[in-house]
Specification:
CATH class of the largest domain: Alpha Beta
Strand content: 15-25%
Shape: elongated
Strand order of the largest sheet: 1-4-6-5
Number of domains: 2
Order of helices and strands: EHEEHEHEHHHEHHH
Structural class: alpha+beta
Number of strands: 6
Oligomer: single chain
Helix content: 40-55%
CATH topology of the largest domain: Gyrase A, domain 2
Largest sheet: 4 strands, antiparallel
Length: 210
């Protein structure tokens, strides 16, 4: 599995919103400025210690008090086996995703070992599976009867194992990541440990873990 951070944004407005209930903006000690790089506006943000302490206090009070974490967003590219994607699909609140299409792209080329998470898979079985699926793909390309062609395509889709890797683009809020980490820490699926380790690399990850 591979996780690539594309962008993290929203700290500045989240800090402003965090202080809205008590109208304590004058106590904020974070610094940020917007700079223009070409046609893109970039936010350069440094979290102040007072703002950090307030955020941690609100986090300790419960999810209904740290609503500002919903305003901090992370965009990531995740290439993961289907077994992990199925579990990640459990989380909908504060999570958006767009994936590559198996339906439209699977038949473009023969499958290779690198298309699968196969660290624990027997090589003989992996080779057998690849030969079987790729043979069916060749039959699909050669078939002229459209109805039988659909049946071959469906049989290939059904034969794909859970270890098949698929790329998806995700947007998470820090609040959603906080919830995921709490529920998946110590999970027996190794990809969850990798996901949580990635969360540690994000800016101000104490908003997720503390």
């Amino acid at each position: 599995m591979n996780i690539k951070t594309l962008k993290v944004d929203g700290f500045a407005p989240a800090v402003l919103a965090m202080r809205a209930p008590m109208q304590s903006w004058d106590k904020s000690d974070s610094e940020w400025k917007l700079t223009k790089e070409g046609d893109t506006v970039v936010e350069n943000f440094t979290l102040g210690e007072k703002d950090r302490e307030l955020s941690l206090k609100l986090q300790a009070a419960g999810p209904e008090h740290c609503k500002h974490l919903r305003m901090i967003q992370v965009w990531a590219e995740i290439t993961a086996p289907r077994e992990f994607e199925i579990q990640l699909d459990t989380y909908r609140l504060g999570v958006e995703k767009i994936s590559t299409s198996t339906m439209h792209t699977l038949m473009r080329r023969p499958l290779i070992k690198e298309d699968f998470e196969h660290d624990c898979m027997n090589d003989d079985y992996l080779n057998y599976m690849l030969d079987s699926i790729n043979t069916s793909m060749e039959a699909w390309r050669a078939e002229k009867d459209e109805e039988y062609k659909k049946q071959i395509w469906r049989s290939i889709i059904e034969a794909l194992p859970q270890s098949y890797l698929q790329k998806r683009y995700y947007m998470f809020s820090y609040s959603a990541l906080r919830n995921i980490v709490r529920q998946r820490a110590g999970h027996k699926l190794a990809e969850w440990e990798q996901f949580i380790n990635w969360c540690h690399t994000l800016p101000y990850s104490e908003f997720i873990f503390e």
